[in-house]
Amino acid sequence: MKKVLLAFALLLIVVGGVFFTQNYLNGSELSFFKKSPTVIIGDRKFEVSVADSQKEREIGLSETKSLSQDQGMIFLFEKPDYYAFWMRNMKLPIDIIYIKNDQIVTIQSNVAPPKEEESPIVYTPTEPSDKVLEIQAGLAQKYDFKKGDKVKYENLGN
User: Fold this and answer.
1) What share of the chain has pLDDT > 70, as a percent?
2) Cα–Cα distances in Å, from 2 out to 5, 9, 10, 16?
3) What is the pTM of this model?
């Protein structure tokens, strides 16, 4: 019986070793080793959801009911342009931060969802941007973010 258990344990070790080796060689990480995408402005870090497909960009934060002070969503675009955002179906106010070449170019602060009878306002940057960060309303002012501030990223996958 001890030999069977020992053989089974060795088999598990070999199979596990092969699995981990294959994942390492393929460059992929296991989900419990992955780090969350993060956007850093000054000394403030935001754990973000990444919207890099058209469908994800259309939904954005509209299905989000609350957002903590260290959470947000980043929208990634292939090239700089005047990307327009609106608050259709949004449930909470946000700050919209437009970024180009890893610098803030425009901040739309305290953008509130429209009332039911109102048409959504369309928000655009003053300059082309290639990324847009959405965070809890009021944080850009609270943390004194401004045009020209440097933006860093961790684990965005690009």
Assistant:
1) 78
2) 5, 10, 12, 21
3) 0.76
